[in-house]
Amino acid sequence: MKTGSALDNLLNEIPVNDRAKTTERMRLAVRLFDLITEAGYSKSSFAHLMGKEASVITKWLSGTHNFTYDTLVDITLALGVNMIALHEERQPQLLAVKHYKINGAQSPIPEMINWYSVAGYASKPIFKNLNEKLWGIASDSFTSPPIIIIDNLYQGIPVIKGGKQKRTMISTEGKIIEESHE
Amino acid sequence: MSKKTKHALSLVNIEIIGQEMSFTTDFKPSNIFDYGLEIESRYDPTHKLAIIKLLIEIRADGFKCASQTGQYWFNVSAFESEIKRGRDGHYQIPADLQIQMNDIAVNTARGLMYSQFKGTLLHTAILPVIDPTEI
Question: Across the strands, what pairs with B58?
Answer without folding.
Answer: B35, B66
